[in-house]
Amino acid sequence: MRFLAFPVLVQTLICNQMSLQEKFSLSLVSKRMKMLVKSTYSNIHGVTFGFLRNKIAIYFQDSTIHWKRRRFYIPRNCSSLFYVERMDRSIEHMIYNHNAEGDFSSLILYLWNHIFEIFSKRNNPLKMTVFIDKMNKYLWMPSVGRATFFSFKREEIEDFIGRHSDLKALEIVGEVDLPLTMNSNVFDVRNIRFYISIRKFTDYLKCFRGFHAIFKPYIHVDHVYEFIDEWIRGDYYENLKFVVVYNGNYGFEQVVLDRYEVKKVGDRSHIPDYYPLDDEDLLYLTDQTNPIPSHQAVFIENNAKNKVASIQFNSRVFEFYIWERELIFPLRP
Amino acid sequence: MSVEPEVPIVQVEEVRENPVLYKIISSDNHVFTISEHAVKLSKTLWDLITNLGLTAENALDNPIPVENVNGKNMETIVQFCERHKYDEEEPEYTNYIREFVLPEWDRQLLSIDNEELFQLILATNYLDIQKLMDYCCRVIGDMAKDKTPEELRIIYGIPTDAEDDALERSASDSPGPSG
After folding, report:
1. Total-model pTM
2. Domain F-box spans what residues (chain A) (predicted)?
3. Is residue B40 part of a domain?
4. Which of residues 10-39 of A touch B (CB under 8 A)?
């Protein structure tokens, strides 16, 4: 088959008929093929490299919920790339052998750079996430946007953040072994998503100098009251914009609002229908880039009367977004 | 057309109304008739018919010459268009998850050698038949299934980076029109 003898449009159409795995294989054939494949991708929002005990797993995030079902992986101490897909049936096969080029580490770095180049658009670099099982299994990568850790030592996470100055999001699953101090660089990351069970989420939030925070899995409603009272008093950093907490045990009920004076908004036409979060923040916070609607929210005001917060919740999720007062309640001319 | 088709000739199930037929002449002077619904699948042919002002009354008296498509490819194309002329429009599919399976009839129609498929795609591209193009591209895309980059290089005849660089160097070293 004389593939390159086809008009470029036809080459592109052929590419569009290929699955992710086939297209990715094609991109590894030559630089020319890499550029062709690059021109046909538009729906990959982010890529996750999982540094696991026995392998490195690579996930491509698209706008569907199925992205976790397909992954590439490289077994440790191996220099071959495999693909596995679990939908209706299991598919698993080797697609690339890097033996001639170098070892395991050089293959990971090669694939990282290759993927970054394929999926980055002009002015919109690919969002790269690392998922770290054990710190000694991690290979230092450039341009990490989000990192997920499992029950790590504080010093390890702080060292990681120090070496990844462009980190935009941090996810910690399980409590950090030592209390985080006020001046820890963990609290300087723009987006955090913490899974906590011992300490209150407000203990973390009071130190947080970033913008957006999500706390899971089961946050007690009393801690939410505490948070709202403290925000009204002005106990949190100015940067704080968006706080989301989950409660799977008891659920949030309407009484959450009974304690507060809700400000009435007559005309809502000037209020955005969605929280003003950009695509990058949305991807790191929610794994998707779909905007989060805010139109059910009610508003409360802080004591300084310079900010208002919108509160919106269902039985499972509580959302708290902080706005400049004038945006919601414009001054009359 | 004297060439025997490799797949059964499509039998048009029914004449839903008095069909308007058009005549097409291939580059090697084979003549084909095609119904109005079928010819509409080719944007190029339908634009031509519209621009020439062909009607039910004068269509058969005015055969349309298509100089870029030979009889063998035209036969496949006419069969395909007659087969799919009443298909409903398919929803758009993403390029990430495959959402259609090539029907068996079409897979059989397109079970031809690589060079023939290559020529058929060029003809399909010229005649602008979206559905046939999608199906042909799927057949070529399927060749990549479970293949390594090295295997793909052979299947698709793709040069290595070194070969591409050498070709580029020789092109830039060659004398220009004035040299």
Report:
1. 0.82
2. 1-44
3. yes
4. 10, 13-20, 22, 25-26, 28-33
